[in-house]
């Protein structure tokens, strides 16, 4: 009877958490679709295409430098809480965010100087790009910690606030300044800063015991967090290049106006299905991490794998349903979501939805390797898939233009999912396991103390 009650309680908690996350993603999707509609009304395809190209730079900064910190926080929070070293984890993450952000600012300043010497003036573009990337990166780390702690309502609020703040500020600056891509970019940056302020206030209230606590520094813990984040950074540059190669390939072999058409297609087809995949990941990842524990228990690992297979199956079913809905409804969806001048590419919507669904299934499949504590095993599949995707986008744009880029997406996505399905995760050794990494006995001793003296 007690087991039945616990089972019902666990199911009720998961259902409740799923509802809260779904609410957050509903706010995100509604803001994204509303923003697409508003921006395509106020911006020409040329300006909208420029905005799409500008944001690829912000995506690079976030993907390579700051998003890995968020992933490390998501993975290591539960072991740190279990071992009583959460303050140490927060201190490590804060230092990583600071130095990576400082590196971004320095690289941005250098880019402005070098490009100015060459006659290209980007001083009005680089600062808002850096502000946007850093604000999203820090906010993403906060959300990663909140999600790992299963504070779903806070994550839902943060995600909705961030998306809507960017959209509203972008439209406000377009109306106040000019209907240009640079005005929209400045609005994105301003909205991200407003959202980050709200995220920090909420985080500081929901986690008061961990704010300002003097940390102890576990040597193995620091190395484990950095090693885990480093894996994301290594493949981050390649996945970024793949993610933006579609728009830049069209720009290279076509026109900026075609980039604007593709961006509208991407926002309506690829983006929502990836949001659904992210919803599944947010619900499943903390549960799978808790189920797998530190990766040393075979029974726990089997339970985690079984649960993971169910999650992947759910993602596949959602992809099939989304594609089936997009086939007859593409004209109606485009009529509601974008301005009439973008209607010419609506027929390609089902293929973009399929591409997003396959890539989402691949991202969900990656959780199996992360729960095993072996993110490094994903480096080769992600880098090779990204390079193949870049080549496919370039070839598609060269021979068939926008349609060729759209056709490349499902091919690359299917290859990515198949590779991850055939690959089996390796269980890590003791020192690489998350819980062992934050063992309280691994604290660094201050200089001048003996091995017998506690740090």
Question: Can you walk me through this structure?
Answer:
This protein is mainly alpha-helical and 455 residues long. The chain has one domain (13-438). 81% of the residues lie in helices and 0% in strands. It has helices at 2-42, 45-83, 86-117, 126-148, 152-176, 181-206, 219-253, 256-292, 298-337, 349-371, 379-400, 402-422, 434-437. α1 (2-42) runs antiparallel to α8 (256-292), α9 runs antiparallel to α10 (349-371) and α11 (379-400) runs antiparallel to α12. The longest helix is centred in the N-terminal third of the chain and has 41 residues, at 2-42. The chain is globular. The relative contact order is 0.13.
Helicity level = over 70%
Structural class: mainly alpha
Average pLDDT, all residues: 81
Task: Give start-end ranges of low-pLDDT stretches.
Answer: 1-8, 210-215, 429-435, 439-455
Topology pattern, helix = H, strand = E: HHHHHHHHHHHHH
Q: Give the tally of β-strands.
A: 0
Alpha plus pi helix count: 13
Our estimate of the beta-strand percent is under 5%
Using only C-alpha atoms, the radius of gyration works out to 22 Å
Instruction: Work out the oligomeric state of the chains in this entry.
Output: single chain
The number of domains is 1
Q: Shape from CA axes? A: globular
Distance between the termini: 47 Å
Largest sheet: none
